[in-house]
Design a protein that fits this description.
Belongs to the ADIPOR family. With 240 residues, the protein is an all-alpha fold. It has ten helices and no strands.
């Protein structure tokens, strides 16, 4: 009985060199779990832009906003095409590659406000451009080795996700560190489901939810500690 229920919602696992094919239910869940966050991500990015007080805050808000919105938009488009246009294999393959590439730039964009707006030590300031080199290398890797070495790809995401966090050791102001850690924990827990297609029903959709929660926690930290005007600034603006 349990096997029959599982087979309705989940297909069997595939070899490491092939991509898992979701069931109809999983396709729908994959689309919905990221489509729901497109409008909130656009609104959230707009709020940061409105709160920006100088050029660097504006630039950082744009970079972060494009990365955040791009992640959910590209993921939704890919999963929709994969579901409804399965006979367009070339288009589906290209969008799948693009979906994986966007993750690297999302990670870089998520770090951008912290690296651009916080005071960093001399050695850590190089991370402002190193993070984008890492994203570019990850993109090139996907272009040439997409779906060939899945564990290597996963390791690349983990390294890029945690290596730039080392710069917090040079920050004089460490407000937001707890939120950054909590968001990172959600991403890590989600990776368990990211690699569980064919073992756990709706595994990829669950991974999407962990990504959304992690992104939400990180957005809150950016808004609260980097963009939210403090009481003194509010009093100055009101007095004017």
């Amino acid at each position: 009985m349990c096997v029959c229920v599982y087979s309705r919602f989940m297909n069997n696992r595939v070899p490491s060199h092939r991509r898992y094919q979701p069931t109809e239910y999983e396709h729908a869940a994959n689309c919905a779990t990221h489509a729901l966050w497109i409008i909130p991500s656009i609104l959230g990015s707009s709020i940061l832009h409105l709160l920006s007080d100088d050029q660097w805050e504006t630039i950082s808000a744009w970079i972060y906003g494009f990365g955040l919105c791009g992640l959910f938009i590209v993921s939704t488009i890919f999963h929709t095409i994969s579901w409804k246009k399965r006979h367009h294999r070339t288009m589906e393959h290209c969008l799948h590659m693009f979906d994986r590439m966007v993750i690297y730039f999302f990670i870089a964009a998520s770090y951008a406000p912290w690296l651009n707006l916080r005071e960093l030590g001399p050695w850590a300031s190089h991370m402002r451009w190193v993070i984008w080199i890492m994203a570019s290398v990850g993109t090139i890797y996907v272009f040439f080795f997409h779906e060939r070495y899945k564990l290597v790809e996963l390791a690349c995401y983990v390294v890029m996700g945690f290596f730039p966090a080392l710069v917090i050791l040079s920050m004089t102001n460490r407000d937001g560190l707890i939120e950054l850690l909590i968001g990172g924990v959600f991403y890590c827990l989600g990776m368990v489901f990211f690699k569980s297609d064919g073992r756990i029903p709706f595994a990829h959709a669950i991974w999407h939810l962990f990504v959304a929660i992690g992104a939400g926690v990180h957005y809150y930290a950016i808004w609260r500690y980097l963009y939210r005007p403090n009481e003194h600034m509010l009093e100055v603006k009101i007095s004017k």
